[in-house]
Amino acid sequence: RMEGHGSYALPTGTEYRGALRDGTFDGEGELLFPGGGRYRAVWHRGVPAQGEYTFADGLKYKDKKWHYCDGYDRRFYTEICSGLKPAGISQLTNLDPPRKIPDGCYDCGDGFYNPETRVIVDYKFRFLRNADDDEHEWIIQTCRKAWDETIEHKPKP
């Protein structure tokens, strides 16, 4: 069994780094997710006793007094940190400029979705999953698509 300090790669691409005891996460350690997020925790027999999740952009999740993207404040985290753009210049995603979506695809939040193959790949084009009917409909109705017209701010000559 795993024992001591080390790392363990899960089939999903998530990696654990930290203390191991009797084949389980036990002590200080962190899960590193493929999208860049991380969960640092103190583990007891494979279960986190206390921990903190940090998103890929540096935003730390708080389960109480969470003010990010609630019903009252719909700004992206980068807008909270850097301020809003002038009137008429929209920020479409937390990334500015937003990712370029491949032709015929949608940006579904954790990767790109091709509605013809019904496959979702991550932003490095590695397979994530096949979309079922409900997810397919949600993506088609909700997510940004490659053929959306993006209105960019162009200064007057």
From TrEMBL:
Signal peptide positions (record): none
UniProt keyword Nucleotide-binding present: no
Keywords: Cell projection, Cilium, Flagellum
Intracellular or extracellular location(s): Cell projection, Cilium, Flagellum
Annotated organism of origin: Burhinus bistriatus
Presence of keyword NADP: no
PANTHER family: MORN REPEAT-CONTAINING PROTEIN 5
Primary localisation category: other
A GO cellular component entry from the record: motile cilium
Listed name of the protein: MORN5 protein
Stored SUPFAM superfamilies: Histone H3 K4-specific methyltransferase SET7/9 N-terminal domain
